[in-house]
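User: ok so my PI wants both of these folded by tonight, can you help

Assistant: No problem, let's get them done. Here's the first:
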Amino acid sequence: SWNVFEDRIVYQLVVFLQPPPGYSFRLELHGGTHLPERCCNIRVVQECTCSRTEDMFCFLHPSDNNQSSPLLSTLCTGSYLDVEEIACWVQNLVRSAWERLPQWHNWQLRVLPSSHSCRLLLTGPCQVQLCAVLVFAVQQGSP
């Protein structure tokens, strides 16, 4: 969605997170109440991949090349997705990618403080301001 707020255009984008191969996301119940739109406990569960393809090793059954995803160790606390870690990781990724874009010298990028989303403020020629808010979500019922 987008909206004009005071002197800037605000875009809100939902970014659906997908688990890496061999994993799935499970929404946890809060005291018997299921509120997926506000759910903060998203468990990362390892899945057996033996029967899916022969060239993909299984995370659950012992093997010589059994390894976990380095991305999960960065984005999780224990067995749960950590939205603050995800926001920080995406903010750093956007900062480093922005420096490599040829347009960076025409627009100024500021990453605004946020612990549960990625908020970006772009200021362009003639002081045009665009604010992009990336909100992270998982799709219920996805593998």
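One down. Here's the second:
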Amino acid sequence: AGNYGFQAQPMGFQGGFVPPPIQSQPTMDGAIWMPIPPSIPNCPPGLEYLTQIDQILIHQQLELLEIVTGFEENNKYELKNALGQRVYFAAEDTDCLTRNCCGPARPFTLRIIDNLGREVITLHRPLRCDSCCCPCCLQELEVQAPPGTTVGYVVQNWHVCLPKFTIQDEKRRDILKISGPCVVCRCCEDVHFEVMSLDETSPVGRISKQWTGLVREMFTDTDNFGISFPMDLDVKMKAVMIGACFLI
């Protein structure tokens, strides 16, 4: 994926001082947050968490009103590490008319918050098509970290039957490729999107939609996703991979 995609993150501290670990504390809703990591030079604030993990689990929260009435609410998500500790909380910010008229194709802004209450990542998706009949107006998502500072993009690539995407850096340079299966809705099994190097010869990670059970799949639109990536992948590209998951 090139040197840009695999920059090891500096973990040293000046003067040899290493701050003591911060213990996980439950919040009012019972969630256990991941301990706050120390600041790292040249790392966007709030992305220090991503230097310590190689996978993220994304759980969409069930909305009772949406289940009962079918009225589309703003989606909310928990982003957890492999230990089940909450790393971030994400909330959609779109108006009622857009949500219920445009459905899954709607434009959205998604705000990702850390355990200090800071908005550390902002995702923007404009209104676009995703049909092979409209190759000139395919899906695109911008990733900002922190808000106002673009760190990358996820753009859909035209293909007759396969869902394909490209991860780009802030200068629109292609960094990674994503390829999904021909049939993205499969019964009783997970669906995997492979993240590959730019020449599509080396696997870099994976984005997986997890099967949540027949009842939940039939009667709700809530999804669970898993993202895996190399531990030493640049945190900006990890943030863009999170954005790619939400776009998918």
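The longest strand covers residues 150-157. The two ends are 21 Å apart (CA to CA). Good luck tonight!
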